[in-house]
Backbone:
């Protein structure tokens, strides 16, 4: 398809669509059909400068800067409503751009509307304090102020989710944002910025710059008028951004990868545990940061659990992500597909036993070549690369254990600490395990249950800081300490 037959999406800067300064564009593909369906602007430092200048102006001289917090909240509520009004169009675009299942995207958009509503309600509940300090002649106050212009750099697997959980709290706090979505799925972030503008968000408050990470990212991270980076992506890119941001002492939050343990004890409800294990790794074709990719199973029930999981995995329906009957869609982009494939060889080489899948899926409706079979390795040791490294695809590693202590050791013996699942009917054991697991989120007798009211974030190489909940908004606020003398005398010089 030639460029002029497909839709083009420029950057979104200061409330308008803007072509790239360089005049260059990037083609974007539909992973289900395997064809180019749109082109996006290829951004660079000049585009970044324009977007940051618009955001800074919005925060300093624009209507956003003068608006009451209640008014800000009202606009966020209108954005929530507009998300629902536009749900069909946004769903179709998101499915097309990253291949996720239509039901997941639609359900996710309802969730995102709730996220916007939640932070809309918090906007005018940001309060400072009066402190009874040790100086009687001083009025001591704290103000909670927006941290400044925020750069939000996001991954490809859930663009609108990242936009909601970063921008809604940042905007509630009074910040302005420049979003840099992944080059693999950009369109919905641009569309969403347009929708937010139409809902009444003042120009410059939400800007979107598209392009490659290496060409847009460093200019954003280095920019002196950017106060904070909120990042979702791989630990490798996160570490690079963290180092770069340190040079100008910027605040960062990092939502990074994981290799989460899903732990099944012999006394668990085995039906529920097997279903939780399957949805924990094959949901979204495993392209989830919280994927339960290490299945730790007590040896006494390992055979039984493996049998049940295999029975489910054999019947997973792959196909068109727009078809409501499809259970697993394509891998979202070619580099990710190649990465999944490469880990099959790595796992085999290290001695893991492939018991299901392990190759590109073929069959009717899978012609694009982007589908991968649900894959299960047994006899995995926790020191193998397949157990230690994030694949970000539908690949499960089963690891046996005998005792609670051994399960804790294996679960924590990893560089990541994003999430964990525990399946047991013994509540004493449940509580001991919850306390012992070194992860930001722990699920008991469930997996992948989310609420925007619960803080979410990782430990170790899984990240830094929190998103969601009230803590998610606190990240975008800074405290100013104010002391005003009430004494009628000149201050003297106090040594020490
Ligand atoms: P990635 O790190 O390759 O890219 C993420 C973003 O960073 C993209 O927008 C990319 O263009 C940009 N980028 C790349 N190089 C950059 C640079 N030098 N400077 C600034 N920006 C740069 O990650 P990905 O492949 O898009 O996403 C998959 C990863 O995201 C997985 O590791 C997954 O676990 C993680 N993830 C984490 C969460 C979470 O909440 N913890 C959620 C979803 C995904």
Residues:
């Amino acid at each position: 398809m030639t460029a002029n037959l497909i839709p083009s999406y420029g950057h979104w800067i200061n409330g308008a669509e803007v072509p790239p300064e360089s005049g260059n564009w990037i083609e974007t593909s539909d992973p289900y059909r395997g064809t180019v369906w749109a082109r996006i602007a290829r951004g660079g430092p000049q585009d970044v400068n324009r977007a940051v200048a618009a955001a800074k102006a919005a925060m300093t001289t624009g209507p956003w800067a003068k608006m009451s917090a209640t008014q800000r909240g009202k606009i966020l509520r209108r954005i929530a409503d507009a998300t629902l009004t536009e749900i069909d169009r946004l769903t179709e675009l998101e499915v097309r751009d990253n291949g996720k299942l239509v039901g997941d995207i639609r359900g996710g958009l309802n969730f995102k509307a709730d996220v916007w509503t939640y932070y809309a309600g918090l906007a005018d509940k940001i309060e400072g304090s009066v402190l009874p300090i040790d100086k009687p002649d001083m009025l001591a106050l704290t103000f909670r102020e927006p941290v400044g212009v925020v750069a939000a750099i996001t991954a490809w697997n859930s663009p609108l989710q990242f936009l909601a959980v970063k921008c809604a709290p940042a905007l509630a706090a009074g910040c302005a944002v420049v979003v840099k979505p992944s080059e693999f799925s950009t369109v919905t972030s641009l569309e969403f910025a347009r929708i937010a503008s139409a809902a009444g968000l003042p120009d410059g408050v939400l800007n979107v710059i598209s392009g490659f990470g290496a060409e847009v990212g460093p200019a954003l991270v280095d920019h002196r008028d950017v106060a904070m980076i909120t990042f979702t992506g791989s630990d490798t890119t996160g570490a690079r951004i963290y180092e770069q941001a340190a040079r100008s002492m910027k605040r960062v939050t990092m939502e990074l990868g994981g290799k989460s343990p899903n732990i099944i004890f012999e006394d668990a409800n085995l039906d529920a545990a097997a279903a939780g294990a399957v949805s924990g790794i094959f949901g979204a074709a495993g392209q989830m940061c919280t994927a339960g990719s290490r299945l730790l199973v007590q040896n006494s029930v390992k055979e039984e659990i493996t049998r049940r999981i295999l029975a489910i995995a054999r019947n997973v329906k792959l196909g068109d992500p727009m078809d409501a009957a499809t259970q697993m869609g394509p891998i979202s982009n070619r580099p990710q597909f190649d990465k999944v494939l490469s880990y099959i060889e790595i796992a085999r080489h290290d001695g893991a036993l492939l018991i299901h899948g392990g190759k590109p899926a073929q069959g009717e409706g899978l012609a694009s070549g982007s589908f991968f079979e649900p894959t299960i390795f047994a006899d995995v040791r926790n020191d193998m690369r397949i157990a230690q490294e994030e694949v970000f695809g539908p690949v499960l590693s089963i690891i046996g254990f005998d005792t609670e202590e051994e399960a804790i050791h294996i679960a924590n013996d990893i560089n990541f600490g994003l999430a964990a699942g525990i399946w047991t009917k013994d509540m004493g054991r449940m509580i001991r395990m919850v306390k012992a697991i070194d992860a930001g989120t722990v699920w008991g007798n469930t997996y992948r249950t989310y609420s925007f009211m619960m803080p979410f974030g990782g430990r170790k190489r899984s990240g830094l800081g929190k998103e969601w909940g009230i803590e998610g908004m606190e990240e975008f606020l800074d405290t100013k300490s104010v002391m005003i003398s009430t004494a009628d005398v000149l201050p003297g010089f106090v040594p020490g």
Observations:
- The two ends are 74 Å apart (CA to CA).
